[in-house]
Amino acid sequence: MSLADSSLRAAAFVDRAARWTGAALVAGFAAMVVYVVISRYLFSSTPRWAEELPRLALVWLTFVGAISGFVRGSHFRAGLLDLIKMPPMIRKALAILAWLASFVFLAVFIVTGARLTGITWSHQTTALSLPVGLFYLCLPVCCGLALLGMILKGGRT
Question: Does residue 100 surpass a pLDDT of 70?
Fold first, then answer.
């Protein structure tokens, strides 16, 4: 097996792991929302985590889902370039430009997210006393994994 094949397999693993993690987060988020609704309307009691925990899950779910979009190269393309007839060289140049823009975007989010996480880690949420930095930790973690997947894939679609 060549290095390129190993790299593509590793990128596919990152994508698959993100999808399974996202599926688990969706299931957990749905279960939390259903439990809160049932608790609120049937038992007239709302759990104290009713807003914080689903919000945390939703924030992480959003960025975990973005990993797959970046690894698959579907964020900037969105299928629109395929609809426009253009020479292959221009198409290749636009694909490289989109890859570079994604790379820079993710690198900025990794650095900024790490700073935000560090600044807010000592603060606590109101209901559960969780570190506020948990909300921002998804930026460096998920953007780092997306960048790793993009690099492993090497611009191949």
Answer: yes
